[in-house]
Design a protein that fits this description.
The protein has ten helices and 16 strands. The protein is an alpha/beta fold. It folds into two domains: 281 residues, Aminopeptidase (3-Layer(aba) Sandwich); 134 residues, Alpha-Beta Plaits, CATH 3.30.70.360. A hairpin with a 2-residue loop joins β4 and β5. α1 crosses α4. The longest helix is centred in the N-terminal third of the chain and has 21 residues. The radius of gyration is 24 Å and the shape is elongated. The protein starts with a helix and ends in a 7-residue tail after the last helix.
């Protein structure tokens, strides 16, 4: 059976490459959400030809959803001969902006040196293509399977997934009894199984001040200076404390096995849209900072928030005229699927068969759509597994290796076979 999967996938290598390149050529840039609908329609047309029933689901009312930029998701399903487990392959179709520094067309789908180049090649259109090829090969080899297979192309993962997987999960599309096992082909390397991710808390801190003429700052109160005090306290107190926290989670890379916080942005005083003139001479009466705090399975969200609030409250008591507000932007609890979960053991079998060694079990430093499947869908038999090198994601000249996609497709087909308990499996 394994050899038959390999033969069926080998016969589709050129198709795999062409499919990946075609997907890259849809500039599904988020924000704002370009080309979602035509890309979803392309995926749907491909799967309809293989007998899948296809549904388009728009994430109406979610952030960014407009008639110009509809949050169009596609979900395809094919039924077996009778009742059985349901395996779902979920890939996001959105990509980040291309940015500067490219030496090739970021949306050209160039094939060179056994690689496919383009924005989203690695993260994660190569994974979507590999999962489609894996499923098609499985259907050719094992047409008499029991259960069902689903493939989805969802949106907005790069901005939180609220118009994609989160929306679908609220409709029950990622819960039992509809779905039993989920594989997300994110680029965590072809011999790794990603069990989950760290937690995240995004928040906006605002310091208050009093406006005055810039030539007489003593008559005002600079909110930017107050924010400087916040930054100084973070440097002296919070960052060293975070650096001392370690996790037993197998997070990669090694540096992410500690608690971390990134200062995402600071905006204070007059905006920069004054060009071509000069800014007005004013004392800034407000300053806003966005923090991106990543935390560990061993930490509680309330404690994570308290560390920041305690510093701010101390400044309010000790610093003259210090006033602040804080607003939650996003909260995600850490998640980690157990190593003996069915989807983990099935994909691990595929890795052993293809690479002749045990898989590495890892945790992602950042979140991906597993958070919604676990939190909203309450489905925990979910992993990320797919081709591509994570470090290439969001970089100029992003690429995915052709051989990596072929090997990952083999792993997916073997894992699918194990999960569906195909009567003809070896």
């Amino acid at each position: 059976m394994i050899d038959r999967f390999a033969k069926a996938i080998d016969a589709r290598v050129q198709d795999l490459v062409a499919l990946t390149a075609d997907l890259i050529r849809f500039p599904t840039v988020n924000p704002p959400g370009e080309a979602y609908t035509p890309c979803a329609e392309f995926v749907a047309a491909r799967l309809r030809r293989r007998g899948f029933a296809v549904t388009f689901i728009r994430g109406e009312g979610t952030p960014g959803d407009t008639d110009r930029y509809p949050r169009t998701n596609v979900v395809a399903r094919i039924e077996g001969r009778g009742p059985g487990p349901v395996v779902h392959f979920n890939s996001h179709i959105d990509v980040v902006e291309a940015g500067e520094g490219w030496t090739v067309d970021p949306f050209g789908g160039l094939v060179r040196d056994d690689k496919v180049f383009g924005r989203g090649a690695c993260d994660m259109k190569g994974g979507l293509a590999a999962s489609i090829i894996a499923v098609e090969a499985f259907l050719d080899v094992s047409p008499e399977f029991y259960g069902a297979i689903e493939i989805s192309g969802t949106v907005d993962e790069e901005s939180g997934g609220f118009g994609g997987v989160a929306y679908l999960a609220r409709q029950g599309l990622f819960s039992k009894p509809r779905v039993d096992h989920v594989i997300i082909p994110e680029p965590l390397n072809k011999d790794r199984i990603c069990l989950g991710h760290r937690g995240v808390w995004w928040a906006e801190i605002e310091t208050k001040g009093r406006i005055a003429h810039g030539s007489m700052p003593f008559l005002g109160d600079s909110a930017v200076r107050h924010m400087g005090a916040v930054l100084s306290a973070f440097e002296k107190e919070l960052f060293p404390a975070l650096d001392r926290k370690q996790t037993k989670m197998p997070v990669v890379p090694e540096g992410a096995r500690r608690s971390t916080m990134n200062i995402n942005s600071i905006h204070g005083g007059q905006t920069e849209d004054f060009r071509p003139g000069l800014p007005s001479p004013i004392v800034p009466d407000t300053c806003r900072m966005v923090i991106d705090r990543r935390f560990l399975l061993e930490e509680k969200l309330d404690e994570v928030k308290s560390e920041v609030v305690t510093i701010l409250d101390h400044l309010k008591r000790s610093r003259d005229r210090f006033e602040y507000s804080i607003r939650d932007l996003m909260e995600v609890i850490p998640t980690m699927t157990e190593r003996d979960a069915p989807v983990v053991t099935a994909v691990a079998e595929g890795i052993r068969r293809i690479f002749g060694r045990e898989p590495d079990y890892v945790i992602s430093p950042g979140t991906y759509d597993q958070k919604h499947i676990a939190r909203i869908g309450h489905l925990h038999d979910c992993i990320a597994y797919g081709p591509g090198i994570l470090d290439l994601a969001h970089q100029p000249d992003e690429w995915v290796g052709i051989e990596d996609m072929v090997q990952s497709a083999n792993v997916m087909a073997i894992g699918l076979n194990a999960l569906l308990k195909n009567s003809a499996s070896s």
